[in-house]
Design a protein that fits this description.
mainly alpha, 3 helices, 72% helix, 0% strand, elongated
Length: 43
């Protein structure tokens, strides 16, 4: 989900990106760099 969010963000679709970043956080896969990236992206 993080990488989809990243692509949406780069394409200027910030609202759609936030949805995907939030889904990445729901995974609770805290050991993954993508989780940490999603956490930073929603701040």
């Amino acid at each position: 989900e993080f990488f989809i969010g990243q692509r949406k963000f780069v394409a200027g679709q910030k609202d759609a990106a936030k949805v995907h970043f939030a889904a990445a956080l729901k995974s609770k896969a805290t050991q993954l760099a993508a989780y940490r990236g999603a956490k930073l992206a929603v701040k």
